[in-house]
Amino acid sequence: ATPTSVMAGSGRAAEYGILFKGGEHLESAQQIQTVVLDKTGTVTQGKPVLTDVITAPNWTESDLLERVGAAEQSSEHPLAEAIVAGIRAKGLELTPTEKFENIPGYGVRASAKGQEILVGTRRLLADEQVNVSQETIQQMNRLEEQGRTAMLVAVDGQWAGIVAVADTIKDTSREAIGRLQAMGIDVIMITGDNERTARAVAEQAGIGKVLAEVLPEGKAAEVKKLQESGLKVAMVGDGINDAPALATADIGMAIGTGTDVAMEAADITLMRGDLNSIADAIEMSRRTMGNIK
Ligand code: ADP
Ligand code: MG
């Protein structure tokens, strides 16, 4: 492509809210064979809502949520924000936290009113030697099969309940993913969330391939693996966790409504949250390079 056609292409893309950081990305985007999509905030709206509260025997909902709120109010994770908003909406007060620890990819550990509180994955509670019954695990499974993210709660080493949140897919995700697939591009969803929830969400979005339970530092390694198999890979994400994978990919695309860290690491910023911008960007590259008319 001539410098003039690249400049014209970049200008046209910008009108569609697709910001290429350099002309070389407009030239290379047409080579993409695989698109890896982050789940939360990329395929989904990224606005989870508290939907379910299940209490262990001897626990009331408000006692449980008081502990959960105390633990989650210091976390900046979208799940934590959803849980805290849901607790506030029920008119409950938040207890001050005495100690707080974020355990990336697993959950949180905090203390409040002299009690130790854990909220997070099965792995988190297992690592902390908290016993969880088979029935509780089945309740988790059922919530996850509906595409919800379910989190276990323990207080002073005893299982105390489950909280679950739902994050619906964007209205345009299914159509946008169908477009990529029709262009001959393989679409994979990647997430730290569990396999069941991930599969349910992927199915709603028309995605057949899922990489679930990937720890925050593991996303870049998964992108690298795909590249090592000979593929040209684009990564699309919005979170701080996605930044290393965005930098590793042949083309990193950040969602403009996401974090600054993701946008700094990416080669292209998609100002519209709509995933149709991915296909638009690749089509514009194909056109600029003269591969389609
Ligand atoms: P994602 O890629 O979906 O943003 P993360 O890697 O951040 O996922 O988290 C993976 C899992 O760890 C979550 O699905 C949740 O079960 C658990 N988790 C993470 N942060 C929290 C939190 N603040 N409270 C409870 N659970 C959490
Ligand atoms: Mg995300």
TrEMBL record:
Q: Which domain of life is it from?
A: Bacteria
The places in or outside the cell where this protein is found are: Cell membrane; Endomembrane system
Q: Which residues form the signal peptide?
A: none
Q: Would you identify the family this protein belongs to, as annotated?
A: Belongs to the cation transport ATPase (P-type) (TC 3.A.3) family. Type IB subfamily.
**Name of protein:** Copper-exporting P-type ATPase
Species source reads: Paenibacillus xylanexedens
**Whole-protein coverage range:** 499 to 791 of 845
